[in-house]
Design goal:
The structure is a single chain. Strand 4, helix 6 and strand 5 form a beta-alpha-beta unit. The radius of gyration is 21 Å and the shape is globular. The chain is built from 16 helices and 13 strands. The chain folds into two domains: 220 residues, Rossmann fold; 164 residues, 3-Layer(aba) Sandwich (Rossmann fold), CATH 3.40.50. With 407 residues, the protein is of the alpha/beta class. A seven-stranded parallel sheet has the order 3-2-1-4-5-6-7, sandwiched between helices.
């Protein structure tokens, strides 16, 4: 069996795709070495849960509180590269683009080259260029993962447009060089093919199928649940409050993630002014291994992506695929990325086009009916059981086969 180097530019606790890849490849008999970064205190604490994993693990610490010198150097390097890229625009060299997008590009590259193994596989926007450069320098084949459509990931303002443009070159180079590529949804894979002429293998953000759904029986006002690494504007949370207010229903809105204090106040004020029968509750982030279990106390899961940012229209997020595994009913925007999941609920999900609050209000009203809610929960669980789980042949086994074919 092979020696596989798995790379992410973030924490393992915030990049469950690379965590699942490392576990799956180790279980398949490969010897896995994982490289990740450390930048955020709560995520560093969550990473501690992976200490007992059987693979080797190297962490690049650039947390301000723990490694101030690397934090300063990497930040200055990235800002300098962005400033150069802003002046050069389309003429930006690949080396500059890599450092503008990847704050720890140099550190990741050095870590990979210390022992690249027989194959390098890496994802996250800030790590892809390091994976490609390490592959070229070492002569070791590589695979890349596009969890997101990185060239359409940012808001189209001045800085976001620049990062998107730099990502075009990085993605094109990665698809030209990598032995294989994976993507976080079929819609992202299709967009890559349309943009770059090569279609990655879709590997969805699915997780292990439990023996049974973990939901609790509840007949009161619907308990709506949303989670992410951070809680902030532009993620559809305001839609839920406004839709519930338009419907005039009572509901509980439960949010999990890191939230700015001012934004928390603004959400509660919005509920008070727009939907007085909606209560807002906020919880600390949970590690990847607890994502399904953390859904157990709720009735419906929310994944309401906007569609004005290309990546948001194309992605099928972790949250959308965690909820069915817990047996929660689904509240989804009908974006390209989420439509395959919507289809598999056979009409038993709350779905609406982004911004269509009248349709959302009607759907949230249906969720207040215990019988319809139960049917929606059963439909979501059946979708998870038959298709949307990590053990499905189109998910874990497909990744393991792609790695085997690339060596």
């Amino acid at each position: 069996m092979a020696r596989i180097t798995v790379v992410t530019g973030g924490h393992l606790s915030t990049c469950p795709r690379m965590l699942k890849a490392a576990d799956a490849l180790q279980e398949a008999g490969h010897r896995v070495r994982v490289i990740s970064t450390v930048s955020t205190p709560w995520a560093a604490d969550a990473d501690a849960a992976f200490q007992s994993r059987p693979w080797a693990w190297e962490r690049i610490d650039y947390m301000r509180q723990g490694n101030a010198s690397r934090w300063l150097v990497s930040g200055a390097r990235s800002r300098t590269a962005l400033a150069i890229a802003r002046r050069m625009n389309s003429e930006t060299p690949a080396a500059v683009a890599a450092r503008a997008i990847g704050r720890t590009h140099d550190e990741l590259l050095d870590a990979i080259l210390r022992d690249p193994g027989d194959l390098i596989y890496g994802g996250t926007r800030g790590a892809i260029a390091a994976v490609i450069e390490a592959s070229r320098a070492s002569g070791v084949p590589c695979g890349v993962d596009f969890e997101d459509f990185h060239c359409g990931e940012d808001e189209p303002d001045r800085d976001g447009a620049l990062r998107n443009a730099l990502s075009v070159g990085i993605m094109r180079e990665a698809l030209a060089h990598a032995a294989f590529a994976t993507a976080g949804s079929a819609a992202i894979a299709d967009a890559c093919e349309a943009t770059f002429g090569r279609r990655p293998i879709p590997i969805n953000n699915v997780f292990t199928l439990p023996a049974a759904p973990r939901r609790t029986t509840h007949h009161g006002a619907p308990r709506l649940y949303w989670f992410s690494q951070t809680i902030g504007p532009g993620r559809g949370i305001e839609d839920i409050i406004d839709g519930a207010g338009r419907a005039g229903i009572a509901a509980e809105l439960h949010l999990r993630g890191v939230i700015d204090a001012d934004y928390a106040v603004s959400l509660k004020h919005r509920a008070w002014t727009q939907a007085r029968r909606v209560s807002v509750h906020v919880y600390e982030p949970a590690p990847p291994d607890r994502m399904v279990a953390s859904c157990a106390d709720f009735d419906a899961g929310i994944s309401v992506e906007p569609d004005h940012i290309p990546n948001r229209a194309l992605c099928l997020p972790n949250k959308a695929l965690v909820y069915p595994l817990a047996g929660l009913a689904l509240v989804l925007t009908a974006t390209r990325g989420q439509l395959p999941l919507v289809s598999d609920t056979h009409g038993h999900a709350v779905t609406y086009r982004p911004g269509d609050l009248d349709v959302l209000a009607d759907g949230l009203t249906r969720l207040c009916d215990p019988l319809w809610r139960r049917q929606a929960q059963e439909a979501a669980w059946e979708a998870a059981r038959t298709r949307w789980h990590w053990e499905h042949p189109l998910e874990r086994d497909t990744l393991v086969a792609a790695v085997a074919a690339a060596r």
